[in-house]
Design brief:
The chain has 370 residues and is α/β, with parallel strands linked by helices. Helix content is 51%, strand content 12%. It contains twelve helices and ten strands. A seven-stranded mixed β-sheet has the order 3-2-1-4-8-6-9, with helices on both faces. It has a three-stranded mixed β-sheet with strand order 5-10-7. The radius of gyration is 22 Å and the shape is elongated.
Amino acid sequence: MIILNIVFYAFIAVVGIQLIYYLFLFSKFAFLNPQTETPKNIAVSVIICAKNESENLKKFLPHILNQEYPDFEVVLINDNSHDDTLDIMEEFAAKHNNIKIVNVVPTEAFFGNKKYALTLGIKASKNDYLLFTDADCIPNSKYWIQEISSHFKTSKSIVLGYGAYAKIKKSFLNKLIRFETLLTALQYFSFAKSGIPFMGVGRNLAYKKEEFFKANGFINHIKVRSGDDDLFINQIATKTNTSICFTKNSFTISNPKTTLKDWILQKRRHVSTAKYYKPLHKSLLALFYISQFLFWSLALTLLITTHAWQLVLPLFTLRLLVFYIVFGKTSKKLDEKDLVFFLPFLEIFLIGMQLTIFITNLIAKPKYWK
């Protein structure tokens, strides 16, 4: 009985922590309306780093080149590909005079390091405003560049966008991947609105070139295999220089992983960078995950044993209700409405997968970006 009383009081504390996150942090984005800014028509360099992406370039690059925007170049970086990626790039360049190719020959010091390849591409770009995406990404509209670039202002030198994943019907893994992506977006958009931006995603991210050189590029974490997006933004983003863009025309859509093994490998690379975040960000993210895990663990323990269930059940229901409201608003905003019905199941499964990935990363570090 004493142990169950301790579990009960711990449960009350955990519910309180979760409600604080959802009501005072995540709600700042969930209830925020998208803002359409006046087009700036500034010169933009779209930067795409590709490694063995010949088929994706054939399929998706035309959607970049056909953007309705008056002044942009596309910098294509061939990062030591072993297929015909470079040939495909050259074929496109022969037809489009706004393409610049950077062919990266690996050095011993930077072998397999995407940050080295990106650095060469950034240096080769001619414009002051840089917009990043991946070779397997498709803009959600012909106005992607216009929407993202319109959020640059005199004081705003970083723009965080939303990188969605394509929907695959009748696939629980696809729903799990998109739920994790939705949760991540809810976090980084909400943190940015709260004045503590901590990351962006390289599938849809923009910043001024001067920010890159002011920070000496990726030098502070050049030996970390991943993190060209989140670690760099974690380093340079501030309350005053960061803007968010989440109009539907500004989304990018990527091909999701189709096997659990491939997705876990991808997430292992991403999760491995979190330990390099600033202490405040690490603490807030860790507390959220721990409170998530404890909420379900303690709630199930108390409900199964029926200990103080008259109080446990209303608290459990309250947290679920707030969770549904915040995620319902967010999923509608980011066009992921089909996930709403599965939310509790996806959350429980994701918590388990994150724990597995964390333990696996402690045992063995993930390697190259591809």
